[in-house]
Amino acid sequence: MRPTWDSYFMEITKLVASRSSCLRRSVGAVLVKDKRILATGYNGAPAGMKHCEEVGCLREKLHVPSGQRHELCRGLHAEQNAIIQAARQGTEIVGSTLYCTTAPCSLCAKMLINAGVVRIVYEGSYPDERALEFFKEAGVKVELFAPQSEEDK
Predict the structure, then answer these.
(1) Distance between CA atoms of residues 111 and 76, nearest Å
(2) Which end of the chain is more exposed for a tag (fewer CB within 10 A), N or C?
(3) DSSP track, 61-108
(4) What is the pLDDT of residue 24?
(5) CA–CA separation, 115 and 110 (whole Å)
(6) Splitting the chain (153 residues) into consecutive groups of 10 residues, what average pLDDT does each group show?
(7) Alpha carbon of 28 to those of 2, 14, 60: distances in Å?
(8) Is residue 127 helix, strand or coil?
(9) CA 96, CA 33: separation in Å to the nearest integer?
């Protein structure tokens, strides 16, 4: 059975997430426009820095709950890395869709809004209700992924 475009790109986000070096959560993100992949990102330390796998996780050591105290983390979120990769390549992402294995946090939501992303498709939840409020206010369409094939339509 042939997957829908949403199913196809969500499967790719899972492969991208497999590159994550985060000890707490593996997240993958794919920016798409006109059925073409513009950029990908996964969560982990910036280029040239040691990964959490090597130095440990400060948020874990301090027992910081998920979704809090992002400034303590040495890693970038998958959505941030996708935006940065597009910028480094000179790829415009205005009008694009972000596919992500996990719903964006409020910080990523603000970046995605300013970058011109118009649609978010995510699979897993994230404990940050403000992100959804930001997307709603900015008119960004947000969808919880529901897998189906073209035959199901």
Answers:
(1) 13
(2) C
(3) HTTPPTTS-GGG-SSBPHHHHHHHHHHHHT---TT-EEEEEE---HHH
(4) 78
(5) 9
(6) 94 96 88 98 90 81 78 86 97 98 95 98 88 97 83 55
(7) 22, 6, 21
(8) coil
(9) 5
